[in-house]
Amino acid sequence: MSNLNTFNLYLLSLKKSFQDRLREKKFKSSNYNVSLGGIQPHRIYESSNIFLIQDLINHDPIILNSVRKFTTNLWKITNLEEDKTKKLHNFCWLPALNIKTEKELGCLIVDQWINNFSNYTEKYWTLDVVTMRLIYWISSYEIIFKNSDLIFRSKVINNIVKQTKHLFKNISLVNSGVDKIKSLAALILVGNSFEQYEEYTQYGLKNLEDELGSFINKDGFVKSKNPEDLFWTLYFLVLV
């Protein structure tokens, strides 16, 4: 019986590995990249949520020093630890920049990121990284959008639309619980900010209700009984 269970687990592992490889191949295809295109929203609503995302902002001196030192060469850095690389690409440091003196720096680095990674890249387009990048970009309205060059604004908007569509298409792959709530919050933020993309708000709110129903018990506590899960659940609910 034990050998049979081991064999079944092995088969499941092979199946998952095969499915993952097929999915990655699809994501990297030109057809998939084209499918992520969308219309330019007629209007962007200001969504300066920096004061709400203080607990999400990363003030890691290594990351911030790299941002300020390397600027246009930032995305060529290859010797950072995996965790710091992930944080660099999810832009958790962006709201930590000084809006008055470092706005141009922030826009320059966002622009360079889009130049290098506008299409799906396995390492930097994982759904958790995309989720947080959307939250930080949308919440950093004054850095990215306010009084910025129209061509740059259009470039960022197109890429946000692209990343959001990727998240929307694949949100079923996100684990239930806080991760799913976080991703739904990102969709809602985009829908609230971009005219003509209200469908993301509607989808996010509907599925957020369903997710909360399965994640929180009748007394209003998370079923995992983990205080951290409760904190982040409430946090992302307030954010949207």
TrEMBL record:
UniProt-listed Gene3D superfamilies = Chondroitin AC/alginate lyase (1.50.10.100)
What is the protein's given name?
Answer: Heparinase
Source organism per UniProt: Candidatus Fonsibacter lacus
